[in-house]
Amino acid sequence: MNYKITLLFLISLYSCTIFSQDWSKWQPNPNFERKMFKMEDSIIYLVDYSFDEVQRDRIAAKVKECMINNLNLLQEKPISPIMGVLALPDFNEMYRLSQKKEAAFTENIDGQYMVTYIENTEHCALNRELMGIAIIKRWGNQTDSRSAWIKEGLKTYAAPEVYSCDSYTIEERYIYLLQNDKLLDIKQFPDQSDKIQYKIACNQSAYIVNCLSDQYGMDKLKQLWKEGMTNFEKIYGFSFDDFAVKVNSELNKKHPNPIDFNWNRFTKECNPFPESNWLSAYNPRQMSNPQLNRMVTKEISNLTFTVDSTMTVAERDEAIIKTNEYINDCLQIINEKPFTDSVHIYLVPSRDGMKHLAGLSAAGYAALNDTIGLLPGNVVCSIYRKEYNPLKHELMHIASFLKWGKQSYSHKLWLTEGLAVYAGPENYDCDGHNLKERYMFFLQNGKLFSPDLLLNAEIDFANSVGNKILYNQSGYIVGYLIENYGIDKLKAIWQSEMENFEKIYGLTFGGMIQKINSELNKKYPEPIDFNWEGFQEECIK
Questions:
Q1: Among 164, 185, 291, 450, which is 20 to 30 Å from 268 by CA?
Q2: Residue 535, burial from CB neighbour count under 10 angstroms (0-12, 13-18, 19+)
Q3: Which of 116, 141, 166 corresponds to the end of one domain?
């Protein structure tokens, strides 16, 4: 990510003793657009340009205050860690830079830490992340995974505001969880994918941490962190489970009646991500890919849509509807059930957009675990507009790859491209003909690829007319096989080798082509009236 590079760059400057620039004053960041930065007391501050100088200074002061309070809570001396703090104004900027749907997160970058957080939120998670850094810097890294509750508990205890939207205290939450049998085994700490379980575990841990530190001191808690949970009884003189029983017993005596508690309010997310909004597209190479900088993105179930920002909201909504219709049509053709795999769909208005986005002059492409240059994962990249867009063609590629397996780039190209053309023949409709009419013209005028050439064909980007013949010829053959022999046989040859074609279909591949041609010659003995000039034009310009 860009901010990783930026932090390492700034750290190298900070550790250098021979520069004359005064880095303690706010200035534009040389490596990071739309951000101001300064370095002070070994902390590197990166702040969005939308914050004025007063706000920037307030952010820096808050970071210092939080670090002091956290170290006081841990009963530790001040530290001067070289670390970064990136303050962002909203979720839109958070997603654009990190592709994360979090209000805050911390990353370890070559032994240095960087906190990225959203400043403009009532339940700011900055201090929660800073406490995590303070623990590691003063107590060291966690040695026992069963001790994760200590760190999470201290983070929650130091920053209760993160969960304060329910208006309850940590003790009130713990009492309710106890009374309603919702306490967890915090030695097996849940990850953040289950937000409610994670929230329960954090609040439960915060209360246990508070009890242990109040009654037995912070030094023992630090020792437990360093030595691990197997040494709990050696450190405290009793087992962890016995201590939990003691805490629960005391609370039951203190609060014999059910506590007035709103569970729905507790489960509410204090910093909810705006799922319904279009966000600025995540751009890990924003200095070199201006096309992504003008795109917006939205996640809907397993599909992520990243589209040109010039598309109106109505056009974007229509594209989403069309995409789902196309996927359903493609799955119906290949007789497969819906897929749950994540697919990232990029839509641009022109070939120029394709060139800037993916470095390709093609109208579209599809890939599993994309390696062309966009984000890793399953990708569909397509020109999209009212007429002659290849989106359905590319979606058939991704659907067939996911359901039947990925073919290599040139292996059985006639089959992979033929299936995609059969699914979306409208890409070629600007000549006024259908697949059968085109095939008939190629046959009558000696323009068909021979069976051997068809089996070994590769895309020739320098010969657009040849590619169109290849694609349309393949589309008609695939359609013929589906309509006359069924989809199961097509799937079988897809997942097999061409040597097995005769075993599957009862004819060699060449024999099948001869059969197709013979039937068409008998049915259409007269030369077809064909718009050859129109065929040579590119429908998708």
A1: 185
A2: buried
A3: 141
User: Domain limits at 300?
Assistant: 290-406
Whether residue 181 lies inside any domain: the answer is yes
10-residue averages of pLDDT along the chain (541 residues): 51 47 78 82 90 95 95 90 89 89 89 90 92 94 92 97 94 97 96 93 98 97 96 97 97 94 94 86 68 90 94 94 97 97 94 86 86 78 89 96 76 90 91 94 96 85 82 97 98 93 96 97 92 89 74
Among 126, 141, 156, the domain-final residue is 141
User: Closest Cα partner for 93 from 341, 245, 277, 291?
Assistant: 277
Query: Using CA atoms, how far apart are residues 197 and 267, in angstroms rounded to an integer?
Result: 9
Same-domain status, 71 and 45: yes
Contacts of 522 (CB under 8 A, 6+ apart): none
pLDDT of residue 99: 86
Whether 322 and 392 map to the same domain: the answer is yes
Three-state SS string over 383-405 comes to: ECCCCCCCHHHHHHHHHHHHHHC
Residue 350 sits in a domain whose CATH number is 3.40.30.160
pLDDT score, position 8: 52
Answer yes or no: do 33 and 110 share one domain.
yes
Tens of pLDDT, residues 183-195: 999 999 999 889 9
- Grouping H, G, I as helix, E, B as strand and the rest as coil, residue 27 is strand
Positive or negative, the CA dihedral 98, 102, 104, 107 is negative
Strand 104-109 and strand 112-118: the pairing is antiparallel
Number of structural domains the chain divides into: 4
Q: Based on the fold, state whether residues 534 and 434 are members of the same structural domain.
A: yes
Q: What is the DSSP code (8-state) at residue 229? A: G
Q: What is the pLDDT of residues 248-293, one digit of tens each?
A: 999 999 999 999 999 999 999 998 888 778 999 988 754 467 788 8
The pairing of beta strand 83-88 with beta strand 104-109: unpaired
